[in-house]
Amino acid sequence: MEENDFVSIWLEETGNPAIEKLTKANMELAKYTEKVLSDKKLQVIDFAMIVDINPDEISRWLIGKHSFSIKKLKELADAIEGFPTLA
What we know:
Elements: H1 6-14, H2 17-39, H3 44-51, H4 55-62, H5 70-81
Helix pairs in contact: 2-5
């Protein structure tokens, strides 16, 4: 990018609202997922199997070191709503 590129300067000064929104959605769903896992006494590997995602990727997501697309977040949210109740 050029030094005087208006878009680059604007992004540097104001940030990117779409990225900020995606980051916030990832953090909120990850926090909620951790609570659901804890409440239902499930492990990360249990959730990973339900959503068919590598457990390491889920672990990184839960601690904020990985993010998913909006599409994947919707799939994860749907899976959380469909968690089986374990007695």
